[in-house]
Amino acid sequence: xxxxxxxxxxxxxxxxxxxxxxxxxxxxxxxxxxxxxxxxxxxxxxxxxxxxxxxxxxxxxxxxxxxxxxxxxxxxxxxxxxxxxxxxxxxxxxxxxxxxxxxxxxxxxxxxxxxxxxxxxxxxxxxxxxxxxxxxxxxxxxxxxxxxxxxxxxxxxxxxxxxxxxxxxxxxxxxxxxxxxxxxxxxxxxxxxxxxxxxxxxxxxxxxxxxxxxxxxxxxxxxxxxxxxxxxxxxxxxxxxxxxxxxxxxxxxxxxxxxxxxxxxxxxxxxxxxxxxxxxxxxxxxxxxxxxxxxxxxxxxxxxxxxxxxxxxxxxxxxxxxxxxxxxxxxxxxxxxxxxxxxxxxxxxxxxxxxxxxxxxxxxxxxxxxxxxxxxxxxxx
Length: 381
Hints:
The chain is mostly helical.
């Protein structure tokens, strides 16, 4: 009997070790080159012995992986916390600016990165490492590595080219690409590195040399990518809300006859004897016909990941949190174009233009409103 229990205990212990060993062997950093393990540890201020055994390096990364990707904000200062929230499109109220605990809690509430998600992300660095780069930096990377980019060299084509040729560029240089070295930032100037960090509130000691700057950018690049994508989502949602507000203002300002003419020109059936409220309800139901041009602007924004998009997204997010939008730069620009739109479609003059002209003017003006609002939002930040 004792032999059976002993055999069971040994089997259980072996099974547990097998599971642990299986999980450990699947960790993405177990596939990294030793220099990449050392680079990650150095970037995260984790001391390691030199020379070091590979297994020791892996164990050190494993020990510090969770904290580095799940709660790095615990080591951030006030400016870094605030900038992080702004880049996510979140509003930081004045009373919270100096409340470190409050800012940390706000960051924690929206934090989505886990050890597993980071593990997946680092299995394909090329998919996100360029997200926070400017267009000129992407162009510089492609030009340096002889990567052809279709004309016109717009952001989406630059990103696609850089991502598709990332591994090839690393291979030609004989460099690693899973946790890339300084080669990736060869075309960046020191001032660009500092600007990138300053924009995100990452502290830069005056004694920092180029290697230090690159290490800090590299360590924060994953978070920058997540924030850029979060700001895109916030910008799209808020722009949709602002678009609805604008179309509502247009419909509310139209007369009953104008609403009927617009519906008729767009093939929208309006029951005989419809009241004004029913006419407006019908128009709002088909608001997409009025705002198709604005919708395309939102779609275009989703491909522009970077600092400018983050700024616009931040301003749009503020607008969405204020139901009235009053006092907001987006609101001011929208209302300016509402006035322009009303004049264009005849609401401020006696003659009523044709319904088709009204719809075209409305769509064009709404698109211009969002372009102007986006530009103003960037200028405000």
